[in-house]
Structures are given as C-alpha cells and as structure tokens.
Design goal:
heterotrimer, A mainly alpha (about 325), B alpha/beta (about 350), C mainly alpha (about 300), B: alpha/beta, eight-stranded mixed β-sheet, four-stranded antiparallel β-sheet, 12 helices, globular, C: about 300 residues, mainly alpha, 11 helices
Chain lengths: ~325, ~350, ~300
C-alpha cells in the first residue's frame, strides 16, 4: 500500500493503543484506597470537605461515567487538572514537555553519531586492538545507571573542570546545548553501548556480501564505500532495535532530569508521584506513550524509505 | 593489434603471440588460513592471457579458480598470503601499494560475478550503480555517467533502459540483472573482463543468450575475457584457450581445440567423459569418484591420484611438473606425452563439438 | 557437467547469499571455557557471597549511626569512610548488595516465570487468546517502564515487596514475546507434531519439548534483565522511591552522597562502582552464553 495510506492506518493504530493505555491507567489509578478528594485536600481535611469536593468534581459518579467523561475530555485535549498545581495538566505539560523533547532528541542524535562511528571503526578493523577495545566498552556501559553516570560526569566536568553548567537549563541555543550536553551524554553511554554492538555485527555481515566485493572491484573504496554502500545496508536491520531502544531512552531521560535539575516532565512526574497527583501522573504516562508510538511509526516509515525491498502492510 | 574475426575456437593457430600478453600470472601461490590449518588455495600457477582473447579457466569447487580471480583483483580475505607476480600490460600489479591497486580496479580490469542478485547493492538504483565506476575513476560528471549507463543498458539488450535505470535490483529478473552486471563491467572500457561463473545462476536458455551477448560485445571492443567456470562444455564453446585446474594447481593448458580433441591429463579426460552427449554414439557419462579434496593435507605426488582410475606407483611420489606436450599445450600428467591409455577407458566421444 | 565431489574444506565462501552471521564473525574459539565466563561468574560469586553472608562479612551494622564519627575519610577503621550519619559505608554497601541483588533477582525471575507462562499460552493456544495477549503486550511495551513503575507503585504503596511486584509487571513482556516467538516457530516443526501424534497432552508437550529449546535464549536474556532490574531499583532508590531509607540501598546512598560531591565524593562514587561491576559481571555471563549458543 502507498506510504500515505500506511501512515493513516498506523495513526489509527496509535489512537487505539492510546485508548487501551488510558483505560489501563484509569483502572489502575482508580483502584487506590483513598479517594481523589482525600488526596487533593491532604491530611487535614474533614470528612465533610472530602465528600463535598468529591461531589463537586464528580468523583462520586459511577466508574463508567467517570471514564467516558475522561475520554471525551481526552479528545478535546483535556487531561484533567493537576492536584498539585491546580491547573490543567495540559498546560503543565506544555511547559515541561519541550525540555524533555529537546533532551531526548539530543540524546538520540548523540547515540546515533557515537554508535555509527564506533561500530564502523570496530568493524573495519576487526580483531585489531581497537576493535577489542570498542567491544569491551558496552560490557561496562550497560551496567552504568544513568543517574550515577550523570553524577560522576557532573563531578568531573561541572565541579572539577568547571567547563559545563552544573544543572538546570540555560537559555538560548548555546545555553541549551551546553546544559543539555551532559544529560544527553549520560543517556548515550548506555544506549550507544547496545546500538554499537548490534551495528557492528550488521556491518560485519554487510562486509561479507558480494555487492561490497563488487563495489570494491569497481574501485570504490574508503569513505565512499562506507557511506554509500556499507552503512545504508547495515543500518536497516538496526532500525528495529532503535524503536525498542527509544522506549528505554525516554525512560532514562526522565530519570536523568532529576539528576541535573532539568524542568522537564521527568522531574515533574517524580513530584507528582510523591504527592499522589493522579491526573498529572496519568497525563504524563499517556503523553510519553504517545511519543513512543509516534517514534515507532517514524522509524517504520524510515525503514521503508531506506530499504526499497520492504513492502508496507 | 591482430584482427580477430571471431572468438570461436581454432582462431589461434600457434603459440607465438606477436605482442606481449595482456595479463600475465607467474608462479602465483595463495595461502589461506582456515580453522584446520593453512591451505594453499592456489599453488604455483602461471599463464598468459593474450589481448582480445577469451581464456577459460575450468575446475571444480575448491580448485582455487575463484581465489585466483580475487588475487588478480587484489581482493583476498584478511590473512591471505600471496606469492608470485601478476602483470597487467607489463605493469606488476602485485607490487602496487593497496591504495594504487584499488585505483587500478575497474579501469583496465572489470569483473562479472556469479550471482547477480547478491552482486548488486539492494538499496541503490541500477543506474547509480552502473554510473559509479566512471565517476570514481575518471571523474566523469554524474549526469554524463548516467547517460552513459543508459546507453550501455541499451547495448546489452535491455529495452526501456531509462526506466530500468531507475529501478532497484530486486525489481528485475535474473537475466536482466546479469545484463546489468555486464553493462557495469563494460562501462569503464576495460581491457579484460574477469568472469566468475557468470551464468551458473541462470537457466540454460538465458545462459546461451548471455554468453552470446558477452561474446559479441567483447569481440566488438577487443576486450579479453578470463572466463572461470566449472562447465567445460560452456568454456569450450566460448574460449580460445582452456586451462584446467585441480587442487590449486594448473594441470593442463592449451588451445581449446587441442585440449578438447586430445586431452593430455586424466582429469581433463575424465571431465570430458562426464559430459552427457547429444550426438555421437551413446556413451554413459562417467562420474569421478573418490574421496573429497582435503586441501590442508594434500596427497603426495599428483594431487589427483587418489581419484585417478589409472594411477600408478610413480603418481604418488613424483613432484608436480608442467611439461610441454604440444605447441603451447602443457600437461602435468605423466601420461601427457600421448601415452594416455585412452582406448582402454573409452573415447570422450562427441560430447563437445 | 556435474560436480560429484563434495567440499573438503572450502576457503572463504565467496558467493554466499544467506550466511549465518555467527559463523562468519565469531571470534571466540568454541572449544575451551571462555575467559569471559570465568571472570563473569567470579564477579557474581563475590556479590552473592556479599549478599548472603552480609552479617558475617560486613564490619559494622549498616544502620548504626555514630554522629560523632560522621564523614570520616577512608582509612583502616572504615575502609570506605562513613557517611553523614556516621554509618560505615562499606557495611552499607555490603548490606545494600543483599537488598538490591535479592530484589533484582526476585523481580527478574518473577518476570521470567510470568512472561514464560503467558508466552507459552499465547503461542501455543493461539486464536483469541493470542490476539488479546499480544495486544496487551504491545500496549505495555509502549509505556516507558519508568512511568509504568511509578503508576504501579502509586497503587501498591511503598516498600520492597511492591517494588518487586511492580518490576515483575513491567518486565514480563520481554519474556512473553521471546517465548511466544519461539513457540510459534517450534509449533510448526515436526518433532512437536510427532509428540502430539504419539498422544502426549498439551502441558507435557510444552514442558518437555518446547521449553528446553527456548531455555538458552531465556537464560541469556535473564542475565541482562537482572542488570536492568538493578538499574531500575537503584534509580528509584535514588529518587527516594521504592526501597525506603534508612535501609541501605545503593541508589539512595548515591543520592545522599550528592550533597558532599566536592569533599567526600566517594560516598556517591563507591556504591555506583559496585553497581557497574555487578552489571559487568552479568554482562560477561550473558555474553558468553550468547557466544556459546552461536559458536558451539
């Protein structure tokens, strides 16, 4: 089917999945022992106040009705009102989401750059010292929890060498790039470890192929060989790994925000958690799920563009 | 430059070639590391390919013919050790630095590989792949190279060349892909094309078409062919010279007519005998029995002796020696001087014209 | 002309089309026990000893606060110094191994069991069951595990048990998919058919024939899953979620140490190093399992 139709079909699927997620969240979060009213008002509230507020906000209606009104709200972009901030969740997200998105994209770009360079270097020098060195890194890298790596990086670069800011988001493009660098790097260490391994394997397979032999027989070599013949073929199978990786990336980014004090949805969700702010937590969860779904769609489309043999079903 | 009326066998009457050979291989040996130890894939092979001729190299899998091809290109796997020399028009290729060697590929020497599906890059368009050669070598501009690619596609018999140039390899049929490979080989105006079993992956009808095409194009351009195959019948139709390889060694070489009409090595004879016959007296094809080649621990003396039906005591001890048994006709067999007990084993018959 | 002779040893295959990657690129010699495995197992052994024999191995009580002895630098009496409440860091790390490792292993094994069961069911039963379960797995994979963990912890409340349960719910999907995939492949194969024809009932076929074939893949993944679980537990601990202070937990130790980065940086660094080394050990084991599977 044509690409457009495929995208349309996938978007429908995205909506359906999100619906499923929202249902799941709703059921989970409404199985809490305390009612929303209690949570909003806190410990000092009297039972009357609780009943009153539950009634005003409609939390004493039957579950089905609550859910359907929640759903209709969703369609209109209304994700509920935060207990903590007493403002619509969508507003809060509007402020925090861009920060997280920037960090995520930054990390993704770094991941790809690092993975491609290292994997190519390793594969082209198979079994030489540099290959072994590059293969050893992921073993250590995978075990490094982002929050710890972040702390260490902070110590080295911000406190020790004082070259980069010690946290918080600075304004302006340069400020952004500088302050988001360490957080992105933290993520990259883990993600590129996995990506490099897979890509290296992929490149090695491509190197064995006849068409590379053909290209070399034509005289193609060096940079041109890598960029125009090896990589396009090697990247394709790694793309599916990337979609799995992305979910992990988002998770990691959310945690890293707390280490570096970045005002994104990661820090926000932690605070929301601590105060049982259900609308905020579920809103954030829904939004991150949507992000991942869209990214997967993007990757699938990219896959079909890069590999002409793929037919979209 | 000799005027060559056709590439059919029998054109070359004598061994005295008036000009230096185009491609010259001298004492080439290639040693490859394998899990079981080192193996000499190619062992002391020497031959010359005259300009504009079609030179056939025949052998079964494992005989070393494909490795030989790759060593001419300089594209051997890591860890391979090469001894001996390779000359292209007097220039010693084996002495070039890897970089200069790489630059010499495609220009002067072209290759046509066996499997057209895997020899083409699946994610790039046909036109781009064909045009790449001139762009890399001669710095031809993209548009000019593309135009040339389309011209060549038409020459190899592909209708609608411009349309095909825009397609991807998986969208073409096997026969078309093979023609694309031929176009790719010709675009840089090479002096010699190395063919590594170019028709093995095709069915018989296509085989014939592709060979005819190749023949015509090379004739028109005076391009030499080094044609590697396991199919002796095919080689004898197309090539002026035939060289037979076994276990990395050259066991018989000469004009096609000579080798086919009067084989001087038991292996060659056996190959001919194993071809099914269409005309002539019906003789059952002979299969060559015996244990598989152990390439790491080669048998002493003649490597073919474990499978040779008439092997004698001396065959297990005498060292390899290629002797002249006719004009330009050489054989490594002790029966090569004409004492091959052929009637005792049966006539090769009319298997090959 | 037909080739009658088989291949002896073939040099580098030149015209291979679909070559299994492992045979072309495996570097480790398949014969002897690899160094990787020995080192990995060695590392794990150390950690297991730490976890199991904590009361014996640790020099001090991890919870014992000695405020006068706060923030002591590493020395003979306290090998890794003390934290801001005077507690011995080394002892806390050793007890932390007990906490983190137990929880992580429990979570990973639990996820494995749950995922395997569901995967087997989905793959073998097929039909509606399969469709519904697959959709659920799709849905769950789309939610980033961190947020899902938070949601689950909200519902389950604080403490180690809820943490383990939450982790199990978050991690089972990977196993589910793995098993389901393998079952689907194996289902069509002849030996399963033969078993069924011989009259073996479904559960028996599953356990005795399907499982062994999938086992190796699962174990390989299990090792890396424990790493992920440890990272998750420590990350949550760092954020003050999950395992609560004053219990010694690596993540919360790293967090507490952040206030003293410029002076007593090892307070944050040391627990982290232990996490990384554990990860390394598990990765080595997981890797060598992988290699064995391919190379052997």
């Amino acid at each position: 089917m044509t690409r457009l139709r495929y995208i349309g079909k996938r978007l429908l699927y995205v909506v359906l999945t999100l619906w499923g997620v929202s249902l799941l969240l709703f059921l989970l979060l409404h199985s809490l022992p305390s009612s929303p009213g209690e949570l909003m008002l806190g410990e000092g509230a009297t039972p009357d106040q609780v009943v009153a507020i539950n009634h005003t906000l409609g939390y004493d209606r039957p579950m089905v009705i609550q859910y359907s009104s929640y759903l209709t709200g969703l369609f209109q972009g209304d994700l509920g009102t935060s207990y903590l901030f007493h403002r619509p969740v969508s507003e809060e997200l509007g402020i925090a989401l861009p920060v997280t998105l920037k960090l995520a994209v930054y990390a993704l770009v770094l991941d790809i750059l690092v993975a491609v360079s290292l994997a190519t270097l390793a594969a082209m020098n198979k079994n030489k010292p540099i290959d072994h060195a590059i293969r050893a890194i992921p073993l250590v890298g995978i075990g490094m929890p982002p929050f710890w790596t972040g702390t260490i990086l902070l110590v080295i670069f911000a406190v020790g060498l004082k070259v980069l800011p010690a946290g918080g988001l600075q304004d302006g493009i340069v400020g952004n790039l500088r302050s988001l660098f360490l957080p992105a790097l933290t993520q990259t260490i883990v993600a590129s470890a996995i990506l490099t391994r897979s890509l290296r394997q992929s490149i090695l397979e491509v190197l064995q192929s006849d068409y590379i032999l053909s290209a070399r027989a034509k005289g193609v070599r060096g940079f041109r060989l890598v960029v125009r013949h090896i990589l396009p073929n090697a990247i394709v199978p790694t793309l599916s790994l990337l979609s799995v990786l992305f979910a992990g990336l988002i998770g990691g980014v959310l945690i890293t925000e707390s280490v570096f004090g970045l005002p994104g949805i990661g820090s926000m969700v932690v605070r929301a958690f601590q105060v049982y702010d259900i609308p905020l937590v579920s809103g954030i969860t829904l939004v991150t799920a949507a992000l991942i779904l869209l990214m997967n769609l993007l990757l699938d489309v990219l896959y079909s563009i890069l590999d002409p043999r793929v037919t979209l079903r | 430059m000799l005027q060559t009326p056709s590439l059919a066998t029998g054109r070359w009457r004598s061994d005295a070639v008036p000009e230096p050979p185009l491609l010259s291989v001298r004492d080439l040996s290639v040693t490859l590391p394998t899990r079981q130890g080192y193996m000499k894939a190619v062992d002391g092979v020497s031959f010359d390919v005259p300009s504009g001729s079609a030179f056939g190299l025949v052998g079964e899998s494992g005989s070393g013919k494909s490795i030989l091809l790759r060593s001419i290109l300089g594209l051997l796997p890591d860890g391979a050790k090469v001894e001996g020399q390779i000359y292209l028009e007097e220039q010693e290729l084996s002495a070039l630095s890897p970089k200069r060697r790489a630059l010499s590929r495609g220009k002067g020497i072209s290759v046509i590989f066996q499997d057209p599906m895997t020899a083409l890059n699946p994610v790039r368009r046909i036109g781009t792949q064909i045009a790449e050669g001139p762009i890399v070598h001669s710095g031809v501009k993209r548009s000019a190279a593309h135009a040339r690619a389309i011209e060549l596609l038409t020459e190899v018999g592909i209708a609608d060349a411009a349309e095909v140039a825009r397609r991807y390899p998986h969208e073409l049929s096997g026969g078309m892909r093979q023609r694309v490979l031929i176009a790719m080989a010709l675009i840089c105006d090479p002096k010699i094309i190395l063919c590594d079993e170019p028709t093995t992956a095709l069915d018989v009808t296509l085989q014939k078409k592709v060979i005819t095409l190749l023949e015509r194009l090379c004739l028109d351009r005076g391009v030499a062919l080094l044609f590697v195959s396991h199919d002796l019948a095919l080689v004898s139709e197309l090539c002026d010279f035939v060289t037979v390889m076994y276990a990395g060694q050259l066991v018989e070489t000469g004009l096609t007519r000579q080798v086919i009409d009067s084989p001087r090595h038991v292996y060659t004879w056996a190959l001919l005998r194993s071809l099914p016959t269409i005309d002539g007296p019906k003789v059952a094809p002979l299969s060559i029995g015996g244990p598989a080649l152990d390439r790491v621990h080669a048998p002493s003396g003649c490597r073919f002796h474990p499978r040779c039906p008439i092997a004698e005591e001396p065959c297990t001890t005498l060292p390899y020696e290629l002797s002249e048994v006719g004009q330009g006709h050489r054989s490594a067999c002790i029966y090569g001087d004409g004492t091959l007990p052929v009637p005792a084993l049966g006539d090769p018959g009319g298997a090959v014209r | 002309m037909k080739d009658v002779v088989n291949e002896g040893i073939q040099p580098q295959p030149l015209h291979s089309v679909a070559e299994p990657a492992e045979s072309a690129t495996t570097d480790a010699p398949p014969r002897r026990v690899s160094a990787k495995l020995t080192i990995g197992v060695g590392i794990l052994a150390v950690y297991i000893i730490m976890a199991v024999l904590a009361p014996v191995v640790a020099p001090y009580n991890p919870l014992a606060q000695q405020i006068p002895d706060a923030l002591v630098r590493p020395g003979w009496s306290h090998l890794l110094g003390t934290d801001e409440l005077g507690r011995d860091v080394l002892s806390r790390i050793i007890y932390g191994a007990r906490v983190d490792l137990t929880a992580a292993v429990a979570a990973a094994v639990g996820a494995c069991v749950l995922g395997t069961l569901i995967g087997l069911l989905a793959g073998y039963a097929g039909g509606w069951f399969d469709i519904v379960l697959t959709r659920i797995m799709d849905m769950m994979q789309v939610i980033p595990s961190f947020t899902l963990l938070l949601v689950l912890l909200l519902v389950l409340g604080p403490g180690a048990t809820s943490l383990v349960i939450a982790l199990i719910v978050t991690h089972w999907v990977a196993y589910g998919r793995l098993i389901r995939g393998s079952v689907l492949v194996l289902r069509g194969q002849d030996f399963i058919l033969a078993a069924r024809l011989a009259g073996l009932g479904t559960p028996r076929v599953l356990v005795r024939h399907v499982l062994p074939n999938v086992a190796r893949q699962v174990v390989t993944y299990l090792a890396s899953d424990v790493v992920l679980a440890i990272t998750a537990i420590a990350s949550l601990g760092y954020l003050g979620i999950g395992i609560q202070p004053p219990t010694a937990e690596w993540g919360s130790m790293i967090h507490d140490g952040q206030d003293f980065l410029s002076s007593n940086w090892w307070l944050s660094a040391a627990p982290g190093v232990f996490v990384v080394v554990l990860g390394l050990g598990l990765a080595l084991v997981s890797d060598s399992f992988n290699e064995r599977r391919d190379g052997a």
